[in-house]
Structures are given as structure tokens and as C-alpha cells.
Amino acid sequence: MTVAGEESEETREAREARETQVVDLPRLRRLLGTPELAWLIDRARRRMARGETLDATVTLRPAGPAQRAAAERLLGRAPRPGAGLTVSLGAVDALLRRAEICPGGLAEAVTALTGEVSPLREERRRVEEAWRRAHAPLAAECARRPGLAAWYEGLPGTGLVRRLSGNDPDVAAPMLSDLAAVLRELPHPGTELAVLAARVCGDAHALDQDRPLATLALGAVRALTGAPAGSGAEWRRSVWAAAGLFTDELSSTVLTLGLPGDRRGAVGRSLEALRAAGQPAVLTLRQLTRDAPHISCDVLFVCENPSVVSAAADQLGPGCVPLVCTQGQPGTAAVTLLRRAADAGARLLYHGDFDWGGLRIANTLLRRVPWQPWHYDSAAYRAALPKARGPLTGTPATADWDDRLAGLMAASGVRVEEELVLDRLLPDLAR
């Protein structure tokens, strides 16, 4: 009989033996580390993460033949009939202890096979803290920029950062840090996008259109500059240009005629020479950002089609007042030139095709620069109807500057192109 408070030699030796036991990992892997029993380990791990006991049963439904055979080998019994497979975690725990594979039972086996199990609450807190650290640089930058506050507040709701980072805060952290650094530099007039990316991010291609950072940055730049929503290469160029950055400074051009220049730069002198000769001038975005001429005029006429410029050059030559052509949808160079002219005090007068595409182009331009209609309203359309030659096709659009124009066009069902009203436009362009 053992005296109270004392431990028999046999009990002490058994305890010491248990304490010196280690996990027999090779046997454990053969027994439980198979693909057919991965579901069992996963269910046990989830219960451990939630702080639940392993003295429970788990069920797999439906269970395949291989999974049923693996459970039979593990427990030495045939699975019960039915679509599901039920296993007692307590029985597995006892088996591991009895076979001296894992002295700590199933919990120790799960850890040995899959790594330490963090309580779910602690894991969530850790992940939330990781996301907070990832956002910290961007949050600090947006806090000091009032124009970015609303954009940043709405960013989590879009799920954009998580999608672009694969829902991994460790991937998001450097991306958001680079974004904060880029925004810290903006606006930065006259800077090439790749040069800024190389200097700030250490990678000249970091802001290329296919990079996640560029997707986030374009949204932030829109919020910072008020640039409109859109898509496509030209739209991206215009958004970057609104912050002073240019992507491709040579392919974006604008057609002009009679545009006054000055003698303070090569571009200004060229414009003066071409104006005196009555010849059109094509300006690149590079010229407008690196050697920008001073545009000084009270009124600047704007048209949609190059045919208007050609006709004005033929008939008016040096006598043509300043005229700019968007050549369809206005590009970055055209918007840059028109915005600078408007900022210098010029009144912009615009004319385009009376068709649905023309209205959309005019609406886009109106959202980017202020202009007034130049024979481009419901009264002008009605007056031009006798010259109309083709049906009005395509998806209808509104005219943001004239509430009656779109309805009148839809009722008439005909389009009127600029080339058909040159007799109305050219007299206005004569000095």
C-alpha cells in the first residue's frame, strides 16, 4: 500500500518514461500523414484553433473509397455504411498514446504534422495588425492630403488592395509603401512616369499599366486631381498628365492652326513662323510639357475634325484665328493645350459632329475643360438639317450643354458632320 503524499517506484518510473518519450515522426507520418487522412488532421486542427476539445467525432461527407480504407486501417474497423465517414478523434488520440507514437496524443500529432496551432482569435488579431502596418504609410500620406481622405476611406470597401495582393498583407505592405511615396511626389509637372517610378520605387516599370501599383495609383491620382473615370491607354495618359506626369510624350499630339507663339522658346518661335505662313502645326505632348509656348488669346476655337483645319488653312491661311482640333476623342496633348489656354484666360468655343459619337466626344471634353458651343446647339442643328445626308445611327447620347439637342436629333434621325457646315464655321475663323 502506498503512503499518502508518496509516489510508488513503479508510478514514478512510468511518469519519467512518458516525459522522455518523443514523437515517432516516421511512424506518425505513415499512420496519419497520408493524403487520404488530411481531412481528419484539418478538422482536428480547426477545433484546436477554436479552443474546442478533441474528445469529439468528425464526419466527412461524401467520403471516397480511399478515405474509407485509410480510416479502416487506422482504427482497425470497417467504416459504417452510408455516404459519410465518421471518425472519433478520442479513439485516434488513445491509439497514438497507446502505440507510443505521440505521448501527447492527437494534439501533439497535429502540431508535429502541420506546425504550431495559433488560437483563431489570436490569428485574426495578428492578421489585422499586419494589415494595419501595411496600410500605415499610405494612411499617413492620405491624412495630410485632404484631397485623398475620401478616396482612402472608401478604399477598403472596394477590396482592391486585397485582390491585388492575393489577400496577403506581406505582399500588400511594400506596394502600399511605394504608393505613399509616389503620392508624396505629386503633382510633379514635366516628369516622365518611368523616371519617377525608378527614383521613388527603384523600378522604372513599377507604374506600368499592367502592374498592381499602377491600378491603385491611378485611382488615387484621380481623387487628387479630379480627373474623370474612364479606361484605355489615352485615358491613363490623361490621368497621369493631370498630375504633371507623361507616359509617352511623342505619340500624343494636337493639331493647330493660327496658334500664337512667342520668342521665348523653340516651340513658340516655330508656332509664330507657321502662323505667319498660314500652315497647320502639330504639337507633341513633349513640346507642351518641356518647352511649352505661352498661349495668349482671348478666344480659342476648337473643332473635332482635321478637315476643318485643312479648309481653314486653304481658304484663310495666315488670316485664321487660333484653332485647335481634337481629331476625334481628345488626347492628352489636346487636353493639356486647351487647359493651359483656358487657365491663361482664353474662352474656348467648340464645334463637333451632330451625331451620337460627336456628342460623347463633346461631353468628355466638357468634363475636362470649360467650353461654350460654337454653332453646336439645338438651334444650329435645326438650321443645318437641310444639309443632312445620312441617317443617325448608334446608341443615343445626351448633350450636357444643351438639354434639347439630343431629343431634337433623335426626332430628326439624321446626322450632320462638320464638313457640311464649313460655310458657317469658316467666316468665324477669319481675323
From TrEMBL:
Domain Conserved hypothetical protein CHP02679 N terminus: 56-260
Boundaries of every DUF2399 domain copy: 282-429
Superkingdom as given in the UniProt entry: Bacteria
Pfam families registered for this protein in UniProt: DUF2399 (PF09664), DUF3323 (PF11796)
The protein's name: TIGR02679 family protein
